[in-house]
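Researcher: Go.
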Amino acid sequence: MILSLDSQFSSQCKMAASDEVLKDGKAVPVGFGKLLAHTDRVVRDRGFKKLRKWLKKNPDLGRLEFMKVWKGLYFAMWMADKRPVQQELAVQIALLLNEIPLERRTMWIECFWDTMRDAWEKLDAHRVTDRGKDTTPTSCNVSCSNHLA
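Model: Structure:
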């Protein structure tokens, strides 16, 4: 029974991310936030891939859409529970810049900083430290060279 419910939920998530609503002549995604903030990494990864494709298809997005995307990406990082998962996601998020047209990249980065500013004070102590140990990374062991092409 659990397996069938899980497969039903996964198929609903696929449909939610593939559905788009036209609003003011623009395609607005339905369900990216839910996919990116999902507790299951497989669902989050699937949502991230769909987001990347959606960004490629919609090069003329504005500030509001970018803010919504960054909010979803923030919660995707929030839900990434282990350092290697977080590092891989950080690289993938950084590489999203390649999907943003040159003339909109400044706005994309501004939206990132606005999201971080708004969310910073809401971070709980457990996200900043892990049982009294500082979890601030001293170095990144994730290589970006195989992602750049």
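Model: The first helix runs from residue 2 to 18.
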